[in-house]
Design brief:
By secondary structure, this protein is α+β, with helices and mostly antiparallel strands. The chain has one domain: Roll (Nuclear Transport Factor 2, Chain: A). The chain has three helices and four strands, in the order ααββαββ. A hairpin with a 2-residue loop joins strand 1 and strand 2.
Length: about 90
Amino acid sequence: MSAETNKTLTRRHFEELLNRGDLSVADEIFDANVAYCSPLGAIEGQDRLKRFFLMIRKAMPDLHYVAEDAITEGDRAVHCFSIAVGTPMRR
């Protein structure tokens, strides 16, 4: 994948999956055997990951992620982000 494709996928992760709660995006951007590292621990498998995202949205429905800078190299992408509760943050 190109660096731009990786940036687009990571943005979709924040904007569509996390902020809008569109779990179908997980099917498009994550492999079935995904290993996802979060501050709460590692989650393995797409179904568990979707349940994790759903749990976070239910616990904090007004949580909003803002994707900041992205760093890509080869097939890897890292995105810096901010989190706000309530009104989305403005840059």
